Amino acid sequence: MQRVDSRPGLIDFGLRRASNVHRQHVLIDQAARVQLNGHRPAVLWLTGLSGSGKSTIANLLERELHALGAHTYLLDGDNLRHGLNRDLGFTDADRVENIRRAGEVAKLLMDAGTVVLCSFISPFRAERHLVRELVGSEEFIEVFIDTPIEECIRRDPKGLYARALAGQISNFTGIDSPYERPENPEIIVQTAEEAPEQTVQRIIHVLKVRNVIP
Length: 214
Hints:
The protein is an alpha/beta fold. It has helices at 17-20, 30-37, 54-67, 77-80, 92-111, 125-135, 149-155, 160-165, 196-209; strands at residues 42-47, 72-76, 115-119, 140-145, 187-189. It has nine helices and five strands.
């Protein structure tokens, strides 16, 4: 049992979590949820530079999947930084932890039988590979939003590139922090050549081919 000192903030000794935490068996598993939902779960991981079009495509895709009767949830990098990841900055270490946490949430939602849409810059290959291994290669679909940085700078929907180029933001992906392009993504999207609605239909086709949705 943990004993807390009467003085605020002092603990005599903490729990040894490595030995005290065990998995709890549950009666309803992913297979039961899949049967109830009528479709398989999947994690669609949209990666690309800021301003590449990830969030636009993810939102349109979720709307289309919802219309088709699929159970979905959209995890957006900016939204998670307002809550779960609000304590993280933009150093390399913080970016790694940001994606690790997002991956764990995506895994939980996938276990619930959901088609999870994840919109994250996720600049490092190692972390994207970590999420792929975490959720399983069969369920993980990497979608590379391949938009040239020149186009992203031209769009600059949030004004972030202008601030980064002016030296007002540090560790900004594509400017003074690297982006590692996916080597073998399941889907490549070139938003400079393809309308978002076309992209959505192409992704829907892939989901049907992979028997995620009927």
